[in-house]
Structure to design on (226 residues):
């Protein structure tokens, strides 16, 4: 029975994450609660006593008390991995018209709040956000360089340099210095692009948007014009 409940718990968690990918964020919460409930049900033999009081329900265990420190650490690692995966799904699903910027930030903040509640360190939380920040950095460069449009200058030299900045994808996002050099060299460094570059640098430094309203309108930044 313990093995069966453990398998059911994993299946519930996987199903919840899959549903979250398609926009059912509330299903992820229900699935996680079901996952925890199945694990608890599968380990009732370790619980020796329940006591109800005004402040809640207390449970004394035979084994868990002795292993509390290691169990907490395992819970922290599990929560980190679930958060990392959930944030990655949130960011990538946005490529198909999934979550708005506000919804993405709300989900991220809620998950980070849970990590802090179970005492995951700020260093470890920041490590969990690596994929999130990488996608935001990619979007800054992508839209500064004109999004899905080509520049108004299409001579071979310009296009080779432009494509070189875009070919790295999410795994190799150009630095702000490299983007600025390209814009200046080929005559694309308008006052508007300078401000967008400043927004990119600010995000790299502070991990928040300097001008959230401008960031939310990034799809309308337009093509590069010389």
């Amino acid at each position: 029975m313990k093995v069966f409940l453990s398998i059911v718990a994993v299946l519930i968690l996987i199903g919840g994450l899959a549903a979250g990918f398609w926009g059912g964020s509330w299903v992820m919460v229900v699935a996680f609660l079901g996952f925890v409930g199945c694990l608890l049900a599968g380990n009732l033999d370790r619980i020796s006593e329940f006591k109800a009081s005004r402040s809640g329900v207390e449970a004394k265990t035979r084994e868990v008390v002795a292993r509390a420190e290691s169990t907490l650490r395992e819970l922290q690692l599990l929560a980190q991995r679930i958060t990392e995966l959930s944030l990655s799904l949130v960011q990538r699903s946005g490529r198909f018209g999934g979550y708005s910027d506000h919804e993405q930030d709300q989900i991220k903040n809620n998950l980070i709040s849970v990590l802090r509640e179970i005492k995951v360190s700020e260093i470890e939380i920041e490590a969990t956000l690596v994929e999130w920040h990488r996608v935001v950095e990619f979007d800054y460069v992508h839209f500064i360089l004109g999004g899905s449009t080509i520049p108004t200058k299409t001579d071979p030299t310009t296009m080779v340099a432009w494509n070189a900045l875009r070919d790295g994808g999410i795994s190799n996002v150009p630095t702000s210095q490299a983007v600025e050099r390209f814009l200046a060299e080929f005559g694309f460094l308008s006052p508007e692009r300078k401000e967008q570059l400043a927004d990119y640098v600010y995000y790299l430094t502070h991990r928040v948007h300097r001008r959230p309203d401008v960031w939310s309108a990034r799809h309308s930044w337009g093509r590069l014009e010389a």
Notes: The longest helix spans residues 68-93. The chain has two domains: 2-51+61-128, 135-220. The longest strand covers residues 47-53.
